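Hey, I'm writing a tutorial for new members on how sequence and structure tokens pair up, and I'd like a real worked example in the thread rather than a made-up one. If someone can provide the structure for the chain below, I'll link this post from the tutorial.
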Amino acid sequence: MLELLRAEPQSRIYCLVQATRDSLTAEARLAHTLASVAVELGIPSDEATGLVARAVALRADLCEANLGLDAVSRELLRAQAPFTVWQFAETRTSRDRAQLLRDHIEVTDRLLELALRMGVSCFNHVSSAYVGAGEEEISRQRSFLNEVEWARAHAESTVVARCSGMGVPYRILRPGIVIGHSRTGGAIPSQGLVNWILQLAGLEQVAGDRLRQQPLRLVGDPDATLNLIPIDSVIEDCLAIDAAGAATHDRVFNLTNQTPPTFGEVAAAAARAAGIARIEWVEDAEGLDLVSRRFHDWSRFQRTYARGPQRFARGSNQLYVSPREGKCMVTGEQLMRMARPAVDAFRSAGRSRVDGKVARALWEVA
């Protein structure tokens, strides 16, 4: 969002802020979140203050009709028409289909219903490159890596069906696995890779000296590629595609890294940041010790993304974005720069974020 504000210096962005039970107002929550992200991304404080001032918070409840917006907020949005919507897909990793249905598909449908009624000029839905099996097309008739990709595919189809039915342009924008800023390394804990690194840090914390004396064994192919892409590169491409206007309407775009790192490179950098001595690769779970097996079971969602080389078609965006070769190279140094602050913050919190059942199991074998 901050990058969107940077790119549109004359615009305001209206943000739906999920209602919570805490005492903070939607405005205070949004301002605090954006200010924190600005620090993580290395944006100077004076610039960040100006950016935050152009972000308008609207208290919402995504589980309710009209997204829980009151009459005043709805009229405020209607007065901005025609406007562009940017919807960034949920990143929950629940394997409960009912929960994913609510988080991805039903929320998308409610947002579409509201936006289409109020005068949206283009609906930009940011999803995941892994939804399309590398192709730039819409399809729900295929196997998916995990339940999250299944839900994202259904959400994409909802966007296409609803927008096409109303004659409203749409774009499906599919980034790879989004990581921190390419220059500053800034990232937030909710990003998938950082969350996995924090799981490693939690494992190291619970296992004590064990992972300093023996390797952590991982099942997988260290030469498999992970399509990691820095957040600033994703936003740059989104804005370039948006700026191209009608030529990019009603299309699917893979926003991916042409030179992605390998699973082995990523795991080695993550292990160093978490204080784990070394990684060893095995072909199947039969070769795992007890601690490694616990982590293997715990990280089953992340493992779905490391299954050999993955190619992503990028024909749709070549006319609209700058060449990507070398543009978003992800190095071990960048990964360490991104991971270390997150691990340090995790450790300074003085508590383990390891899931309770996993923590107890690890204590038993440590």
